[in-house]
Amino acid sequence: MPNNDAKNPFIFSKKERVGILVVLFVIVAIFLAAKYIYPLIIKDGPIAAVDIKAATDSLQAKENDGSKNTNAYNDYNNDEGYQSYSKKNYDRTFTGTMFYFDPNTLDAAGWQKLGIKDKTIASMQKYISKGGRFREPDDLRKVWGLRDDEKDRLIPYVRIAESTQPAYNNNYTHYEKKPYEKKVIAAVDINAGDSAAFDALPGIGGGYSRRIINFRNRLGGFYKVEQIAETFGLPDSVFQKIKPLLKMSGNDVKKININTAKEQELKAHPYIRWQLAKVITEYKKQHGDFKTLQDLKKIMTIDEETYNKITPYLTI
Fold it and tell me: How confident is the model over 279-289, as a mean pLDDT?
């Protein structure tokens, strides 16, 4: 059931309605009176006629000045005005005397007479002293320090003398190409050739030639060309290249008497070394001297290949 004691917010008492009407009336009255009250508070003074005239005269003067400057600018930029100005400044900066000259031979005094600065003169003379040369008049345009107007003024007076030195291209033109001559390499005797002879072979330098000769000396000489391939470090490809250039004039090798040689002498040979030298020495102690070289085959450690390899260096 609704509570009758609760007050409706939209229902006003008589006093409240009167108060609202009074407030609204006051607000409307303020808005209506504002346009009459504002002029009484804010007063604008009248603009004097003399002030208006002064402002107008000032504006007109500024416009006249701007028009005058524009006309002066246009006068300067027309062809006649620009040329007159340029000629005036050109004549003012040029103080030299013009004459025909060769820039390759002209001295410092001559450059000064032409009106060139000392710093630029020093730069050009340094260029000439180091072998530089002006080959045509327009080369002056490459000189750092010369102004464009100076270059234009100097170039018509340049007279370059012909050089007495032949140009590189002329030398090249007269160069006669010689026919290729294949180098003929002499064959080398493997037992008589010296270090220089081996060094001349293709692929054999000073190192390999010394190794070949050292190996030959330790063996006591070569008894066949193929022994060169056993040289320490020598590639087979190099040996195959030089093999046709190797020859052997005789089989004169140094031989070792196995019956009288000591163990130290035997093991110094590259094909015998210390192990085989010891075996041969022990065999002699047990069986006496060798009667023939064939007796070496009685030693079990000496096979057919070893026998054929060492016997060319042995005797009894």
Answer: 92
Nearest to 203 by CA among 174, 166, 243, 167: 243
Give the burial class of 241: count Cβ atoms within 10 A of its Cβ; 0-12 exposed, 13-18 middle, 19 or more buried. middle
| Domain total in the chain | 3
**DSSP conformational letter for 101:** B
Q: What is the pLDDT of residue 238?
A: 94
Using the predicted structure, report yes or no on whether residue 75 has a pLDDT greater than 90.
no
Q: Which amino acid is located at 151 in the chain?
A: K
The answer to whether residue 37 is domain-embedded is no
**Separation of alpha carbons 35 and 31, rounded Å:** 8
In a domain, 145, yes or no: yes
Please, are residues 212 and 243 in contact by the beta-carbon 8 Å criterion?
no
Helix axes 79-93, 49-77, angle to 10 degrees: 70
Task: Tell me the CATH number at 276.
Answer: 1.10.150
Which residue range forms the structural domain that includes residue 96? 92-157
Q: Are residues 243 and 284 in the same domain?
A: no
Asked whether the predicted pLDDT for residue 243 surpasses 90, the reply is yes
Do the Cβ atoms of 253 and 221 come closer than 8 Å? yes
**Residue 220, domain CATH:** 1.10.150.320
Average model confidence (pLDDT) for the chain?
Answer: 79
Q: What is the pTM of this model?
A: 0.44
pLDDT greater at residue 185 or residue 272 = 272
In terms of Cα–Cα distance, which of 164, 172, 133, 137 is closest to 151?
137
168 close to 174: Cβ distance less than 8 angstroms? no
HEC letters along 108-131: HHHHHHCCCCHHHHHHHHHHHHCC
> Is 77 a member of any domain?
no
Alpha helix ranges (H) inside 42-165: 49-77, 79-93, 108-113, 118-129, 148-154
More confident residue, 47 or 279: 279
Same domain, 243 and 260: no
